[in-house]
Amino acid sequence: MSEADDSASQHSRSLSLNGSGQKAPPSLPVVSFNRRELDIILRLYGRMVADGEWRDYAIDILNDRAVFSIFRRASEMPLYRIEKDPKLARRQGAYSVVATGGMILKRGHELAQVLRVLEKKKHLRVVDA
Fold first, then answer.
1. What is the pTM of this model?
2. Which pLDDT score is estimated for 124?
3. By the 8 A CB rule, do 51 and 72 touch?
4. Which helix or strand (DSSP H or E) is residue 116 part of?
5. What whole-number distance in Å separates Cα of residue 68 and Cα of residue 74?
6. Of 72, 23, 20, nearest to 45 (Cα)?
7. Cα–Cα distance measured from residue 26 to residue 23, given in angstroms and rounded to the nearest whole number
């Protein structure tokens, strides 16, 4: 066996084994927002930025959920968190909007429906003519 064959064999072994010599566990699927979901969220975000309500956002991709955090200023706690948690998809719905204090404002199966809780209310006013 040549040196090149030996080094290739060691390289392939190191890919399938972790540091302790045991097989690495299979990688878990990562929860994230897909393109359609991000489009819906960013449309709302863009409208609210144009109105001067929101200024910054962050996207966190965790093992069990994805979080889109919305800030008024970058230095403070998020005003709202839009969370996608697939474990809750069959029961309460995968999507939820959470306020600063941790209170869940809305939860559901459809993202567009859940985000309506963040839409600004149109106030009707009497106009003198």
1. 0.70
2. 60
3. no
4. none
5. 14
6. 72
7. 9
pLDDT of residue 128: 73
Query: What does the block give as tokens for 106?
Result: 């809305």
**Residue-by-residue DSSP string for 46-109:** HHHHHTTS--EEEEEE-SS-EEEEEESSTTS--SEEEEE-GGGTTTT-SEEEEETTS-EEEEES
- What residue type is assigned to position 52 of the chain? G
- Contact yes or no for 81/115 (Cβ under 8 A): no
Stretches in the chain below the pLDDT threshold 70: 1-28, 74, 121-125, 129
Cα distances from 129 to residues 122, 123, 125, 126, in angstroms, run 20, 18, 12, 9
Residues 95, 56, 86: CA angle, nearest 5 degrees: 15
Evaluate whether 23 touches 16 at the Cβ level (below 8 Å). yes
Contact predicate 9/36, CB 8 Å: no
Paired tokens of 27: 């990688």
Could you tell me which of 66, 71, 67 has the C-alpha nearest to residue 45? 71
Separation between Cα atoms, residue 80 and residue 100, nearest integer Å: 6
